Amino acid sequence: MTPLLELRDVTKDFVLESNLLRRLVTPRRVFRAVDRVSFAIGKEEVVGLVGESGSGKTSVAQLILRLMAATSGEIRYRGKDITRQTGTDLRPFRQSAQMVFQDSQSALNPRKTIRRTLIETLKRRHGTAVDLEDRAIALLAIVGLGREALGRYPHAMSGGQRQRVGIARALAMDPEFIVADEPVSSLDISLQAQIINLLKALRQDRGLTMLFISHDLALVNHLCDRIAVMYAGRIVEIGSPGDVLRTPAHPYTQALIAAIPGGPRSGERPVAAGNARMEPTRNGCAFAGRCPYAMDICRALAPELTSLSVVHAATCHFITKA
Question: Nearest 5°: phi and psi at 24?
């Protein structure tokens, strides 16, 4: 069965510019934000992408939605390569795929009322042949807001209300695929639960497919069918929530779970201090500099993704193949 979305060895490099004199005497420096990422999402599936800040999660989201171009690799949607598409060729995908942003404050134009924001989006999707205001009211109802919200500006709404408007705006295009980039990270616990329950209901009622980006393992466990763990631009483990959270194979995944206060793996052997970008270039395993179990082979050779079961895989030299 063809997946709805598939990434094949997608890589994104950024050139680190410096002054002219330095460029003349030193080689060009390249920062690899996304490193040969491969995974697929089936229709009506929700996949969670987790990892520390700086691990490359948002870069993957922007590459998928063609907000920036990949350096190499393929992004396929409904079996069709969209990696190099532009203009009118990309228009069907732009309609089918939408994004819910992390910062609801900056995602909405502060000079536009909610009415104008939604109607402009609806007009791009449906033209003017339908009653756009009625559709806007219906969208607000879907996300739990009343028609009185139409006349308000973003600054007059709470963070949770703005995030609901952001979801309504995404739904205005009738998408089948949504990327939710840390959509609840700036909200308090009660509002987080409301937005997650809303996304679950939309998935069930509309048959939506989602990539849900988060650093909160409890949220992805509650919402997602599969979880992909990302570190320093690479996918280091992928599998069902039961596999990844209860029997994690990669030391980085184990460290993430151990960091949960009172969690099932708290108190385990700690990783070295640092973050996902502590070393800009690596020949071996991206996590070797922090891994408490690293050996010479880890620093010299990057491990390949190894299958542990039909749906569970990890990149580590010291795991046994299924």
Answer: -75, -25
User: Cα 202 vs. chain centroid, distance in angstroms?
Assistant: 18
**Beta carbons within 8 Å of 231's beta carbon, 6+ residues apart:** 51, 52, 55, 252, 276, 286, 287
Question: Model confidence over 219-260: pLDDT tens digits?
Answer: 899 999 999 999 999 999 999 999 999 999 999 999 999 887
DSSP-derived secondary structure for 81-128? E-TT--HHHHHHHHHHEEEE-S-HHHHS-TTS-HHHHHHHHHHHHHTT
Query: Could you identify the residue written with the tokens 């937005």?
Result: 195
Question: DSSP per residue over 20-67, as a string?
Answer: HHHHHHSPPEEEEEEEEEEEEE-TT-EEEEE--TTSSHHHHHHHHTTS
Q: How far is CA 133 from the centre of its chain?
A: 31
